[in-house]
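USER:
Make up one protein:

ASSISTANT:
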Amino acid sequence: VQLQASGGGLVQAGGSLRLSCSASGSIFSSARMGWSRQAPGSQRELVATISSTGNTNYANSVKGRFTISRDNAKNTVYLQMSSLKPEDTGVYYCALDRLPYGTVDYWGQGTLVTVSS
């Protein structure tokens, strides 16, 4: 399985970005997908997850501003980010957790998001 993330860039505070992550292989539809991020000098933190049936979970810091979604026909997971803040700056990684769920099995290469104040 390979994960290819895209959509990062430079945006002003208050702006929006949509990240995409395409997966190869045939396990996408049954996998739990997620996005994590890592700010400079910080540990990687989980941002959002979506189950194979569409149940979502978010970190408190992004609730109400970020939306994770998936398109199983396209083997793609999205992260719509709105009302961006400078503290959202970091490298965003998509992740795939296959059955049985528990730990991340595959990571994407990361896409950089920079939010200017």
The mean pLDDT is 96. The first strand starts at residue 3 and ends at 6.
